[in-house]
Design brief:
By secondary structure, this protein is mostly helical. It is built from six helices and no strands. It is globular.
Length: 100
């Protein structure tokens, strides 16, 4: 039984190359991250500040911007969840989340 941190790492890795990853897998990864972000403040911190997860979310939005409204919805859900905290909101903006 893995931890939430392990799950965040696993879905980040699975979605890391959004351009060559299937739309269904990207959608699954983003939906999982959205659920995990809503689950705890610690998960939000991990997604916003640790590893490459935030970059992967934004990259997925950019790559699939015209391919999938569902991906955009899930990615926006993750970013919205992160943005309830002022420090994380700033991090999302600095990482390009507002432009994605």
């Amino acid at each position: 039984d893995g931890t939430d941190a392990d799950e965040i790492d696993a879905v980040t890795l699975a979605c890391d190359d959004a351009a060559s990853t299937s739309t269904d897998l990207v959608l699954y990864c983003l939906t999982t991250l959205w659920v995990l972000a809503q689950k705890s403040s610690e998960n939000k911190r991990l997604i916003a500040f640790e590893g490459e997860t935030l970059r992967v979310i934004i990259e997925a939005m950019q790559v699939h911007s015209e391919r999938s409204a569902e991906i955009q919805t899930s990615a926006c859900g993750v970013l919205w969840s992160l943005s309830t905290n002022p420090y994380q909101r700033k991090r999302v903006a600095e990482a390009g989340g507002c432009d994605a």
